[in-house]
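Quick one, probably user error.
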């Protein structure tokens, strides 16, 4: 498999994940409300659907430890995960959530379980097959692919459902799930050498100050970026009374910024090194989040939100690239999954804290506090990179 084909495969795998995840986090509520479900019931299903991303640590351990019927540690699990997701998406339209609540909740859980399986093993395959000087660009393609998938769902799926039906919308998502398969079939796994054979002793890596510091940075970055992202549209509604159509367009502009920030951020990381990249991403993040408080006209919103998207994508790509560098090859997928789980904890805290802060202090003050919080990562960067890079 050529380098271009590898990059395309990883981008498409994350494209599929971004597309389906965007449905569950953005459009699932509209689908369920069309069957008469209230937001309490929607919330229950949403929580059940996201459980697989909490237990993905164990999926990483499974992939690291168990050779799937002698076919490999990554590739067969990726194919299985995509197959589960595709089948479930074709079956979902046969279920009436209003009458078969738990059947739909179970199907949503299994769908996301398939996604969590191939997501975890995609990360493992990237860790196994990526050279040190490619880590940034690989993460750029993966992060950009996911953001692109989110853009497609926020635009094409809405048009399909509006002009045809939800059934065809789910079939469209099933087809998106199949897109990476031709590339995955031709992917090659690396041979499991002793230094890449599962070993419980490798978990001692989590006692290293650099790994602990990276976990804290991941949680902080997720708190700041996702927290700020959550209040962007509400702040614009308060300032300019934007409608849902405008809010959707702004979300698309943000996603395009994330795509470009991910792709070019990956290239920049490989060129100038991870330490300088994370410092640059920190500075851009701090400035862009602070500027969100300075929006005084609608035209400024698009420009500053695009810059925020660039910072979002760049920061995420750098974090993923550094996570690849510190993982122990014996538990690569497991260790990466744990670091991502810690970052997800930061996301949850950020969504809760920024909601409370914006109610108590206002949106502008919340943006400024989040911007300053970036400075808390500076001493942690020194621990991860004790020497000049």
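Nope, works fine. Designed sequence:
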């Amino acid at each position: 498999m050529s380098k271009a084909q590898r990059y395309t495969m990883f981008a498409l795998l994350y494209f599929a994940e971004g597309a389906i995840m965007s449905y569950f986090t953005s459009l699932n509520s509209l689908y369920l409300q069309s069957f008469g479900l209230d937001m309490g019931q929607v919330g229950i299903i949403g929580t059940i659907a996201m459980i697989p991303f909490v237990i993905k640590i164990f999926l990483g351990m499974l992939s690291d430890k168990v050779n799937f019927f002698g076919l490999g540690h990554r590739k067969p699990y990726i194919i299985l995960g995509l197959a589960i997701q595709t089948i479930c998406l074709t079956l979902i339209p046969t279920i009436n959530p209003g009458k078969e609540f738990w059947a739909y909740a179970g199907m949503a859980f299994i769908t996301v379980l398939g996604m969590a399986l191939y997501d975890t093993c995609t990360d493992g395959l990237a860790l196994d097959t990526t050279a040190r000087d490619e880590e940034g660009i690989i993460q750029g393609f993966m992060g950009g692919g996911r953001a692109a998938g989110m853009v497609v769902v926020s635009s094409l799926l809405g048009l399909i459902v509006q002009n045809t039906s939800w059934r065809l919308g789910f079939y469209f998502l099933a087809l998106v799930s199949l897109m990476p398969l031709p590339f995955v079939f031709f992917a090659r796994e690396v041979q499991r050498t002793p230094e890449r054979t599962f070993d419980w002793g490798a978990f001692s890596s989590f006692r290293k100050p650099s790994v602990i510091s990276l976990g804290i940075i991941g949680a902080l970055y997720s708190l700041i970026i996702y927290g700020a992202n959550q209040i962007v549209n509400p702040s614009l509604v308060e300032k300019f009374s934007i409608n849902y159509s405008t809010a959707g367009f702004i979300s698309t502009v943000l996603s395009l910024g994330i795509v470009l920030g991910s792709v070019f951020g990956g290239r920049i990381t490989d060129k100038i090194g991870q330490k300088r990249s994370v410092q640059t991403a920190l500075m851009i993040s701090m400035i862009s989040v602070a500027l969100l408080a300075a929006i005084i006209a609608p035209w400024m919103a698009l420009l500053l939100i695009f810059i925020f998207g660039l910072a979002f994508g760049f920061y995420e790509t750098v974090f993923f690239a550094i996570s690849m560098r510190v993982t122990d090859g014996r538990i690569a997928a497991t260790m990466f999954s744990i670091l991502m789980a810690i970052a997800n904890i930061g996301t949850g805290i950020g969504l809760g804290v920024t909601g409370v802060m914006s109610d108590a202090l206002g949106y502008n003050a919340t943006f400024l506090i989040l911007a300053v919080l970036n400075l808390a990562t500076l001493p942690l960067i020194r621990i991860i990179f004790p020497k000049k890079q």
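The chain has two domains: 3-190, 202-381.
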